[in-house]
Amino acid sequence: MAGIKAEPKVVQFFEFLAWPYDYKVPISTNALVELIHMVERWRQRTSYGPVLVISGNGKSRVGVYIAANFAIEQVVAHEEIDIFNAAKTVRRHRSALIETIMEYKYCYDLTLHYIIKYSKLQPALKMLHRSKL
């Protein structure tokens, strides 16, 4: 628009290419955990505002990422894990997000992997994880 001057915005684009084309979940959580961590580090270093999450179909993959990220943020802030609430919160805003039990379980796996790798709760969670094996 003519006459309106605004500061330019910075857009950082992260793309996750390891998701299977058949809409199932990835076999491993490694790559997506690294992406979640990379995005979080970027958010901490900058003040560029919210993160926009998109996917090809606009639902399943987005839902898994958002729910897992929400659960991870809750662990960091409150030292509590509640994947059910994270998934429920995401689905309250868009019911098509997290459509299958496989996606729901993958949210658990992502959150656990992230916490074991990056959280100060590592020792307690490693013990809990081993006792369930």
Automatic annotation (TrEMBL):
Residues 1-114 form the Tyrosine-protein phosphatase domain. Pfam families: Y_phosphatase (PF00102). Transmembrane segments: none annotated. Residues 33-105 form the Tyrosine specific protein phosphatases domain. InterPro entries: Prot-tyrosine_phosphatase-like (IPR029021), Protein-Tyr_Phosphatase (IPR050348), PTP_cat (IPR000242), Tyr_Pase_cat (IPR003595), Tyr_Pase_dom (IPR000387). One of its GO terms (biological process) is neuron development. Gene3D superfamilies: Protein tyrosine phosphatase superfamily (3.90.190.10). GO terms for molecular function: protein tyrosine phosphatase activity. This is Tyrosine-protein phosphatase domain-containing protein. It comes from Euroglyphus maynei.
